[in-house]
Amino acid sequence: MAKLKFYGGTEEVGNVRITLDYNGKTLCLDYGSKQDHEDDDQAFPRSDYVVVSHAHLDHVGNLPLSLKLNPGTKYIGTDMTKRITEYQLNDILKINERRKKEGVPDRNPPGRQFSLDDILAIKDGWLPADYNNTTRVGDFDVKLVNAGHIPGSAMTEVTCGTDKIVYTGDVNLEGNLQKELPGLNLLQKNPKALIIESTYGGEMRDSIDKQEQTFIRYVEEAISKGKNVFVPAFAIERMQRVGSLLSRIRNDHSDYEFYMVSPSYLKMKDMAYRDIALANLTESAGLPNEYKGRKSVIVSTSGFCTGGISSKILREVIENKNYTIIVPSGFLPGNSPLKSAVDTGYAEFSNKGGAKVKKKLRAELKQVKLSAHSDKSGLVKIVETVCPNKTTQIYLVHGEPSSQATLTQELVSRGYQVRIPKKYEEFSV
C-alpha cells in the first residue's frame, strides 16, 4: 500500500513537496520553495526520486536540498523543465552572491545553501521523460502529460502496483502561449487519488481574451493621460504574454518607448519562446539610462517586486502620480511590497543596512489577472473529466484556505470526496 505525505503546499500557494512511499522507496512530487518564508528542517523529506512538474521556483527552488539529503536522488521531468530549472537555480546563486556582497545574509541556513556543483549534480541525475511516455523508477511508473501552464509543464500520473495517483501541478485549461492545452484525456480515468492545485479555486475569472483586453485598456488609458507605465512581471510566460500584447499597440504610440527589461526574460525567450515575435519593443538585460527622460512603458522582472530590476523601479515610481503600475497577477505573496501597497496604501522596502523604509502609494495601481492557472470552473472541469465515477479521493494543494474552502464546497456538492491536507498529514492510498 502506498502512502501520501504532505510536507508543503498545504493551505498555501507554492512551497510544494509531497511524498509517495511505496515498497521502501520515496518519490516526491516537486521540491519547491516559497517567497515569504522558509520551513524548518523536518519539512524537507528525503526522496529517492523527484518528479518535477515545472520550473517555477515554488516547485523547484529547494531541489538542491533534496540532493543533499540523498546524493543519489534521480529527477524526472521534461527536457524543457530541466533547462529552465538549471537557469532558475543558477539565477538564485547569482542573487545570493550579490546580496552577500551587499551585506545581506542568505535567508537559508548553512545546511540548505547550495553551489554550482549541486546544480550540475541535479542535471546529471535528471532522467529524460517525454510527454505521454512512461518512465520506470524503482516500483513506480511515471507518465507526464502536458499541463498547459508554462513550457515543459506536466501533470503527473504515478502507478504503484495496481493503483494510480494523478498530480496536476499547476494547470491551465486555456493553455499556454504556445497554444498547448492540458492532455486530460491522456490520463487514466478514476485514479485512486487526484492531487490538484487550487490557487484560484475560490473565484471565477474572465476568459484569457477578456483579461488581455483589460490589460491593453489599462495601458492605453494611462498613455491617454500622458502617464508612464510600469509592469512588474515574471520572466517565464508573463513577460512574453505582456510583450505580445504591447506589440499590438506599439505603433499607435510613437511618442513612447516600450522596454522589456530583464536578463532572465531574454534567456527564457531564447530558450522557450523563440516563435513569439515582439515587434518594435526595446529588449535589454538592464534598464536603459534614458528611460527617465522619455515617456515609457517598462516591463521588468520580478513579478512581485521582491528583487531584481522591478524592485528598483518600484522604489522610484511608487510615489510618482505620473505613473500607472499595472500588476498582471491575481496572487501577491505577503512579502511583496505590491501586496502591502494594495492592502494599506504603503509599500515597505529594505535598505542595504537592513533598515525598513515606507513609501506611500501615489502612483495609480491597477491589477489584472493574466493568470496561467485555471479558475474554479476550470478546476471543477478537470476533476469531472479525470474522475467521472466520483470514486477518487481528491486532495487540494497549492491554494490559500479561502480558495480551498470554496472549491471544496463546490466539489462536495457534486458528490466528490475532498480533503484539504494539513502539513505533515499522511494518508494511505
Defining traits:
single chain, 429 residues, alpha/beta, Metallo-beta-lactamase, Chain A, Rossmann fold, 2 domains, seven-stranded mixed beta sheet, 11 helices, 22 strands, 29% helix, globular
SSE class: alpha/beta
Overall tally of domains = 2
The helix count comes to 11
What's the CATH architecture name of the largest domain? 4-Layer Sandwich
For the CA atoms, what is the radius of gyration?
21 Å
Number of strands: 22
CATH superfamily of the largest domain: Ribonuclease Z/Hydroxyacylglutathione hydrolase-like
Which fold name fills CATH's third level, the topology of the largest domain? Metallo-beta-lactamase, Chain A
Question: How much of the polypeptide forms β-strand, as a percent range?
Answer: 15-25%
Helix content: 25-40%
Strand order across the largest sheet: 6-5-4-3-2-1-22
End-to-end distance, in Å? 7 Å
What's the assembly state of these chains? single chain
Large-scale geometry: globular
Low-confidence stretches: none
Highest-level CATH class of the largest domain: Alpha Beta
Sheet with most strands? 7 strands, mixed
Describe the 3D structure.
The protein is an alpha/beta fold. It has 2 domains: 3-203 and 372-428, 4-Layer Sandwich (Metallo-beta-lactamase, Chain A), CATH 3.60.15; 208-367, Rossmann fold (3-Layer(aba) Sandwich). 29% of the residues lie in helices and 24% in strands. The chain contains 11 helices and 22 strands. The protein has helices at residues 57-60, 63-69, 79-101, 116-124, 208-224, 238-249, 263-272, 308-317, 337-344, 376-386, 401-413; strands spanning 3-8, 17-22, 25-29, 49-51, 74-77, 126-128, 134-137, 140-146, 154-160, 163-167, 193-197, 228-232, 257-261, 282-284, 296-300, 323-327, 346-350, 356-360, 364-367, 393-397, 417-419, 426-428. The strands form 4 sheets. It has a 7-stranded mixed sheet with strand order 6-5-4-3-2-1-22. A 7-stranded mixed sheet has the order 7-8-9-10-11-20-21, with helices on one face. The chain has a 6-stranded parallel sheet with strand order 14-13-15-12-16-19, sandwiched between helices. Helix 7 links the parallel strand 13 (257-261) and strand 14 (282-284). Helix 2 (63-69) packs across helix 4 (116-124), helix 3 packs antiparallel against helix 4 and helix 3 packs antiparallel against helix 7. The longest helix is centred in the N-terminal third of the chain and has 23 residues, at 79-101. The radius of gyration is 21 Å and the shape is globular. The chain starts with a strand and ends with a strand. The mean pLDDT is 93.
